């Protein structure tokens, strides 16, 4: 049982919960100080924190980027529809809350494949009367299933711009999952004027000593790798043919951040890129 949601609260889903294997959404919840995680998630989170002590800072700054990007989209860009894949366990200021605080008629579809996320989403991701929210139980590795889902088509109008949110999720796709093809399948389904938002882990910004330590831990079997950090050029390849919004592909702390640079965490403590791009 988790510290928050028990398996008995997940009718029909408990057989899908693997308590022995860390899940990115539950581990992220742990880093953010949540209670909806298992021992395996906490152990994995601590193993990563040993080689990258600033992981909690990264998780928080990633969340702040999401909020700034959504405010930009719902405000300046005028987007009213959001497809958020890799939702994670809801915390404060989720995509629909930020979007609907700017534009109450915003419509949001969340996608994740963890039963605990599903339970929280159904309970907490409520909409304004003017807007709508929906949740799809699906996996990013199967983009066709996401696009064919009846709830998606009922909630979002694919004749109007949609913001595709891929926050801290694509780096969990290894090469064998064909990440570029997966993202392209989703992007190709979006109408002109849509946006793609992504955050992606990288080693470009990390401390060399920390990188060497992590590599030693991996070789020794003390750190399990379940994500693929990518370089700036590799992240840029996801956006071929799209119009990248200023300031470009930058550390998440540098994307339209009102906090003065000298007051932000150092880049080595937030080794993750953020980018927003428009579909022409």
Percent helix: 25-40%
- Tell me about the biggest sheet? 8 strands, mixed
Mean pLDDT: 87
Q: What is the radius of gyration?
A: 18 Å
Number of strands: 8
Quaternary arrangement of the chains shown?
Answer: single chain
Q: What is the CATH topology descriptor? A: Rossmann fold
Given helix and strand content, the structural type is alpha/beta
* % residues in beta strands: 5-15%
Quick one: CATH class?
Answer: Alpha Beta
Order of helix and strand elements from N to C terminus: HHHEHEHEHHEHEHHEEE
Q: What's the number of helices?
A: 10
The name of the CATH architecture is 3-Layer(aba) Sandwich
CATH H-tier superfamily: Vaccinia Virus protein VP39
Give the termini separation: 47 Å
The residue ranges in which pLDDT falls below 50 over 5 or more consecutive positions are: 1-14
Number of domains: 1
What does it look like?
With 280 residues, the chain is of the alpha/beta class. It has one domain (58-278): Rossmann fold (3-Layer(aba) Sandwich), CATH 3.40.50.150. It is 35% helix and 14% strand. The chain has helices spanning 24-31, 39-51, 55-74, 95-102, 115-124, 143-148, 150-155, 179-188, 208-219, 232-236; strands at 81-85, 107-112, 132-137, 163-167, 195-201, 243-244, 250-251, 272-278. Strands 1, 2, 3, 4, 5, 6, 7 and 8 form an eight-stranded mixed beta sheet that branches. Helix 8 links the parallel strand 4 (163-167) and strand 5 (195-201). Helix 1 packs across helix 2 and helix 3 (55-74) packs parallel to helix 4 (95-102). Residues 1-14 have low confidence and may be disordered.
């Amino acid at each position: 049982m988790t510290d928050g949601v028990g398996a008995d609260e997940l009718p029909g889903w408990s057989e899908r919960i693997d308590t022995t294997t860390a899940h990115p959404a539950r581990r992220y919840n742990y880093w953010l100080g949540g209670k909806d995680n298992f021992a395996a998630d906490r152990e994995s989170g601590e193993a990563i924190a040993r080689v990258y002590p600033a992981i909690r800072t990264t998780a928080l700054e990633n969340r702040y980027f999401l909020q700034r990007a959504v405010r930009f989209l719902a405000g300046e860009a005028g987007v009213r529809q959001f497809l958020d894949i890799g939702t994670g366990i809801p915390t404060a200021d989720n995509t629909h809350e930020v979007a609907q605080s700017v534009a109450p008629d915003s419509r949001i579809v969340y996608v994740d494949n963890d039963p605990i996320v599903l339970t929280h989403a159904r309970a907490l991701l409520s909409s304004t009367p003017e807007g709508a929210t929906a949740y799809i139980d699906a996996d990013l590795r199967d983009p066709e299933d996401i696009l064919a889902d009846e709830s998606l088509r009922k909630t979002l109008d694919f004749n109007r711009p949609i913001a595709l949110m891929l926050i801290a999720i694509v780096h969990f796709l290894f090469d064998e999952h064909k990440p570029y093809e997966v993202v392209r399948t989703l992007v190709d389904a979006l109408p002109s004027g849509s946006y793609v938002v992504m955050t992606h882990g990288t080693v470009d910004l990390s401390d060399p000593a920390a990188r060497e330590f992590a590599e030693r831990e991996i070789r020794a079997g003390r750190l399990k790798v379940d994500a693929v950090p990518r370089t700036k050029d590799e992240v840029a390849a996801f956006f071929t043919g799209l119009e990248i919004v200023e300031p470009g592909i930058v550390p998440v702390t540098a994307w339209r951040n009102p906090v003065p640079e000298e007051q932000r965490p150092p880049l080595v403590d937030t080794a993750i890129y953020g980018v927003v791009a428009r579909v022409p």
